[in-house]
Amino acid sequence: MKKVPFYSFLVTKTSLALAEVIYIMVITTFIYQKTESALIASMFPLFQAIANLVAGLLSPLIYIKFPFSKLFMSLPGFRAILLTLLLIGFEAIITHIYVLLIHVLIISFVGGLEKPILCSLIPKIVLKDDLVKANGSISVTSQSAQIAGYSFTGLSVLKFGHYPTLFFNIVLVWIAVLCIFITSKYIIENDEKVTENQSRWELMKEGWIFLWKNSTLRMVTLMDVIEGVAGSIWIGAITLVYVKEALNQGEQWWGFINASYYIGSIIGGLLTLLLAKLIQKHLIVSMAVGSLLFSLFTLIYGLTSIPILALLLCVAMGPAYQIRDVAQQTAFQINIESQHLPKVYASQGILLSLVTGFSIFLMGFISDMIGVRAVYILGSILIFISAVLSLSLIQVGKRKSFDGDLNL
């Protein structure tokens, strides 16, 4: 592992993970306090989703025009400038909520272009044998940053106000930009060339074509889609209903459940680092075992009425999820050339965003019509199906001679 570029990128991802949580909480709470309207406050994540969708659709046209290193540096820098302008003009902008929402829309669009670029960097600065360790390290630090953000941002807003908290957010973003500048010095360009007869439509389709034609990417994406549907069982509203109806506890247990899951995720990330070499050698087995354990723990969680057992299960789910997730990310990264990753990640992101939006509605409907326990039972079944599908990658690997990469 190249230590300087990796650790500078690790700081980048950690800073951005914390900054993103602070940004979301500051803007959401501010809009709600200003308007006292949950509907208008909900327009913030809606605008973010729309901007990310448009960015995902247009990103191939942008990625093909500019070298990776320029996009890697310029997109976070441009977003940092937009956030700084938001801070400078905060007093003026806050008097016009819709101006704020439009500014948020632009920032979210740039962020939507930036995310696939950042996700694609790891294979460019890390050797294949170190991918699990690298992905695990980023997972641990990002999860820890998010926990800190959710834990302290609300308190900071109450004690210091929106403006100082947003200022800290800007500091974090500029730290990330500085680290990106350091990392960019170690990137070796391997950009894709455009043939003269390629139309814009063909360029926009390329990410989807890679996802469909590459059987490994197709299967991993299908697993991600299924798990994306299942992942909606953990949204706040469903968890709150579960706490009240299944555990017969007060709202404070909602926080206990979330904290337990985050603690488990951190433990899982550390376990992934400890077992990095073993997971790297047995990616498919790691996916399957992680998914099977996650499915089992989710099923028991949905059926239990014992609060302490529910907390312990949340902690246990963390390692299962992290091992599965890191193994899937690594399998995805090693089965496509790095120059194609940004547009493939962009296409996958569009698909997962659409699935997540639909599944949130689906799980809410099932919870209301059948009961909250049915939601977790369905989630466990979907995760189990994903585990079974992961085993089919063994045959894919044998047919495509991926043994050297997947070490089946």
UniProtKB/TrEMBL annotation:
Pfam families: MFS_1 (PF07690). Its main location: membrane. InterPro entries: MFS, MFS_trans_sf. It is found in: Cell membrane. The keyword Membrane applies. Coiled coil: none annotated. Keywords: Cell membrane, Membrane, Transmembrane, Transmembrane helix. The chain crosses the membrane at residues 7-32, 38-59, 80-106, 166-188, 222-243, 255-276, 283-300, 344-367, 373-394. PANTHER family: INTEGRAL MEMBRANE EFFLUX PROTEIN-RELATED, MAJOR FACILITATOR SUPERFAMILY (MFS) PROFILE DOMAIN-CONTAINING PROTEIN. This is MFS transporter. It comes from Cytobacillus citreus. The lineage of its organism: Bacteria, Bacillati, Bacillota, Bacilli, Bacillales.
